[in-house]
Amino acid sequence: MIKLNVNDKIYEMPSSMEELVIDKYQRIMELGEDRTSIDDMIEVISILSGMDKELISILKIESLKTLNNLATTIFKTGPSAFVQHFELDGVWYEFDSNFSNMNIGKYSDLTKLSEPGLVNKNLHTIMALMYIPSNKKKKRNILDFIKSEKANLKEEYEPSKIEERADLFKEKLTMNIVLSCVLFISILRSAIYLSKSGISDEDLEEKVIELLNSVSLKM
Question: So where are the chain's domains?
Fold first, then answer.
């Protein structure tokens, strides 16, 4: 975190996607792609740091530009590795790639939440559907994911628990996990399609590694 001392008060601003939570990302994305006006700069810095916009507006222009450059840097860093599992508030969560046997309710929710124009608004809920409480960490290779090996899940699909988990993720889950998941799902779908063409496991794994490398994503 970047520590900012303004009027003898310390504010913290994330320095990378590993520190930027979903809620702040969503609020910034809602401002649109062209965030170059002074008002937009103030809004972004306020969202990231928790600093009042009135306080930011009285800073010197050079200070504002410096803070804006720091904020901009965050969005220039993409995810470097797909996160299979993580711990949050004492609970382990694992990516569920069991697409072929997915509950119809979960499939329907994912389809609706992922419609064009709705993804950013629903990121926290999509992640709550894709990352499920797990009994233990289990490292899976790419072929395990392609074959939709079921994760070590603690629970079946229950909408009420999804909503509760989505609220937690919105507040605390960081964007490196989210963005790497979005990229990985896209690659995984392509790999599953390829796997049905009769390609050998060896060639399939090589192809998927090429796809991962094309977006600089590690397993």
Answer: 2-74, 85-182
What are 32's two structure tokens? 């649109």
Inter-residue contact 106 to 157 (CB < 8 Å): yes
Pairing between β-strand 9-13 and β-strand 2-6 as defined by DSSP bridges: antiparallel
Specify the 3-state DSSP secondary structure of 125: helix
Q: For residue 218, how many other CB atoms are within 10 A of its CB?
A: 11
Task: Give SS3 for 84.
Answer: coil
Prediction pTM value: 0.86
- Provide the token pair at 6: 């303004």
- Give average pLDDT by consecutive 10-residue segment, the chain, 219 residues: 86 92 95 82 93 90 88 80 91 82 81 87 93 80 72 69 94 94 85 83 86 82
- Cα distances (angstroms) measured from residue 201 to each of 23, 46, 183, 208: 39, 50, 21, 10
Sign of CA dihedral 56, 58, 63, 64: positive
What per-residue confidence (pLDDT) applies to 2? Answer: 87
What is the model's pLDDT at position 20? 95
Give the pLDDT of residue 7: 82
| Phi then psi dihedrals of residue 97, to 5 deg | -100, 15
The dihedral of CA 144, 119, 106, 130: what is its sign? positive
The torsion angles phi and psi of 88, rounded to 5 degrees, stand at -140, 120
Instruction: Give me the pLDDT at residue 144, please.
Output: 79
The conformational region for residue 93 under phi > 0 = left, psi -120 to 50 = alpha, else beta, is: beta
The two beta strands, 91-95 and 131-133, are: antiparallel
